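Field notebook, page 404. I keep forgetting to write these up properly, so this time I am using the form the group agreed on. The chain and the ligand, heme C, are recorded exactly as supplied. Prediction of the bound pose follows.
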Amino acid sequence: MFTKAVIPAAASTALLTIAAITPSQGTSPSPNFAEDIAPIIQKNCLPCHGPNGIGPFDFTTYRKFNQHIELIRIQTLSRNMPPTHSSSDFGQIAEAPPLTDQEIIALQGYIRAGLPEGQPLLNPISGPQKHETQPTKVFKPNSPLPSRAEGVMYWQTATFPVAEATHLTSISITPENPRIVRSAQFYVASPGTNLKLIPVNPNTLITAPGVTPLGAWAPGFPTWKLPPKTSFTIPKGSLLIVASKIQPSGRSQSTNFSLNLTKTTQPQPNAAEIVSFRNSNFEIPANEAPVITIGKTFTQPATLIGLIPKARFYCGVISAKVTEPNQKTRKLLELDRWNPFWTGNYQFTKPVNVPAQARLEFNFTYYNDDRCSMNEFRDPETVVSGPRWEDEVCEMHLLISRPR
Ligand code: HEC
């Protein structure tokens, strides 16, 4: 199960913090399901724990939610659920919103008070509005999904040839089985890219010359979408690559999805581009937890739409910050529990303007010790950067926008 899969170094600390806050809040009347808990479920859980969600349970009624209350207590208190751990000084990231301290306190208060129902709800809680998109292409795998043991995830890549220059404004996918196709990542391979160089099992990333990551998608969350008047031009002859994360159910089930693209006929006034930073020559000694920093001073002003971090299983924390010419530093993104199986869409809900001469810095913390699940059944060994799944990577790709 993913919650145990990767180094949740922050889990125990988060638990202590919340436990310490709770008593001082004890005087308020106890929260009830209808008024206090249902809105939290709707906003934070139903993208995945609805009737057809990717999560294991359905939380749409008082009775169904309470059936799992002990697990819910643990999962929310440890901040394992919702499964995202990002924050920023620049407003919300388009990814799953984490629970606030107040929401966790409300849930704990509700449980301590003996699950008061309040005014019974007439209808099941309904999930967030789904937006409609036109499927442009359905990907069908060549052979049906082989039966595999529960829990063994793998990545499947599909390529879509781009026959004419395309001015993209959004991408998402609609899986036939949302519980099987758990998330997806989008890449563009420029014309003439040697696809044989792409690792067969990308394990959340395709690093190959000529291949640029565009972003990610996960069910129930805001889709990969550019701000108004902005488009990303994919040149004629490129390939759009979708790497989808497959969670086999043990039965033979379809891994098909439709790819939903919105595009404009003309390029928009602002061009979206990817600017990449990477360190591809590093070593992580056994039993060490180094921080690897990459970054750059921007000579031109830039408008930042989102960030696409790339790392594998040894990585625990990823942070990005901007230092303005007046030395003021602000956090662009902090992922306090990086998990390559749960990479989301780290776009800002409002683009961030970065002035000229600002320095962008990205810090990746790697745990090559017993905090990392890779070392669960063996002594840590030196890890190197590279393409194999047991290697590491350190990459940050910025989705920026510039006037054409
Ligand atoms: C992004 C989708 C997503 C969101 C949002 C989400 N969950 Fe989950 N949740 C999952 C998935 C997927 C699993 C199954 C974990 C696995 O297969 O490893 C899960 C598992 C769980 C479990 C079972 C854990 C166990 O030990 O078996 C609980 C309890 C849970 N979620 C509670 C919640 C609550 C409460 C919320 C809202 C506050 C929430 N989740 C929000 C996707 C989500």
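OBSERVATIONS:
- The longest strand covers residues 166-175.
- Helices lie at 2-5, 11-21, 33-45, 62-66, 69-77, 101-112.
FOLLOW-UP: compare against the apo run.
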